[in-house]
Amino acid sequence: MRIGSMKRPERVAVIGVGILGSSVGWNLTRHGVKVVFIDAGQPGEGVTNWSFSWVNASNKTVRRSYFDLNVASMAAYQELARTIGPKSWWYPRGHLRWADDPVAEAKLLETAALLTSWDYRVEVRTGTEVRRRLEPALAVPDEVPVVFYPDEAWVHGRHLVGCLVRLAVAAGAEHRFGTAVRDISTHTDGAIRTVVLSDGSHLDVDVVVNAAGPSASHVAGLVGRHLPMRWEPGAVTRIECAQVPVHRPMHAPHIEIRPDGDASVVLHSREIDALIDTGEDSAELARLLHESARRVVPDLSNSRITQTRVSNRPIPADGFPSVGALPSVPGYYEAVAHSGITLGPVIGELLAAEILSGKRDGILADFRPERFSP
Fold this sequence. Notes:
Blueprint: E1 11-15, H1 19-30, E2 34-39, E3 54-55, H2 64-84, E4 90-91, E5 95-97, H3 102-117, E6 123-126, H4 127-133, E7 145-149, E8 153-155, H5 157-170, E9 174-177, E10 181-186, E11 192-197, E12 202-204, E13 207-210, H6 216-221, E14 233-240, E15 250-252, E16 255-259, E17 264-268, H7 270-273, H8 282-296, E18 304-312, E19 322-325, E20 332-336, H9 340-357
Parallel strand pairs: 1-2, 1-13, 2-9, 5-15, 13-20
Antiparallel strand pairs: 3-8, 4-8, 5-7, 6-7, 10-11, 11-12, 14-17, 14-18, 15-16, 16-17, 19-20
């Protein structure tokens, strides 16, 4: 199927069943397409489950087109929650951010002003107001400016993926979980023909969606495509507590904290990530994250570390998503992005529409796969 054609795909293989793969596959099944989900693990158990899972556009101001794409996906989340129901995965409670030094604080307020000029909802409050109205458990100084983004959210990624996969399977989708892709063969004209799995089985398909996250470069290589990716590992820790003392995700100085259900909290820090390549073991990374979190939320002092994972983030070399068809390989599409949690719904909609119609949406113009082509 070539770009611009209107031929309907017979069968689509979605490789990688995290937030992006499940979103694309579910949207395709809604239009009656035969989809087969393929994942070396289980759906939603990879980087989707080990992400800070923060839905936002406030951290996406480096390029206006990237900001606009993230805003579009925030709106798509609202529609998705109405369509499939928000239970167990959707938590639209806003996001807090503050700093502890003058330079970082000035940059934070400068970004807030820019976002306001772009019609993005921003509220600047004091630490006192935040404790009184939003997060009473925080140890934030009284007069420190805290930026509140009321339209942001967090998502339980594994639950959302599970929901989308169940809906897709109920609509006729197949799955091959716990099985890796060993090879992808093509016809003499270069178009996708067959996916070969590690169990020896062959799947005849005419479209492949590469949503393989950190393994996306390997999958691309199976069709002769060079997809340059960054090496940027991150450590995420889950801690268990009798009662979760915070209600929304937050970027505090030196630590990121969000709720993760009724009895768990997720911790992450870019500063701690910088220690990964020094050889620091995951137990020590977790201890440092927990220590930082307790300073911000003293009620976490009695919590205990339950799980820590170091994962490589799926980031194309220039930092932006790679989404859409690759003209040189008919039937091959990419859905690779670091901000997969935020971008899942909009990429799912847009890529499914492109696969079905061959038409390219202008909002993805800056994020096309061919920008990496030789």
